[in-house]
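User: I'll paste a sequence; please echo it back and then give the predicted structure.

Assistant: Echoing your sequence first, then the prediction.
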Amino acid sequence: MPPAIVPLALIALGVPAAVRAVVGRPRLLGSAWIAAAAASLVAQVAGEAMAFRPGVVGDAQLLLAALASAHATAIIALLERRAA
């Protein structure tokens, strides 16, 4: 696994778990992890393409990945609330 993927994976796993611990949602944690992982990878590619430098550690776009993971988790939580 490339070194830049490791912190992105930790963010993609940690953000939905932290939100669930604080708020109690999303209940579908697996779905939130998948959405956060996809959002983190898209953020990494977008950050590299735009040469976005704030929040970069090594080659990983940590700031964008954290924001994208939080956004994806919020979308899953809102969709759960509508379905219930």
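The chain has one domain: 5-83. The two ends are 38 Å apart (CA to CA).
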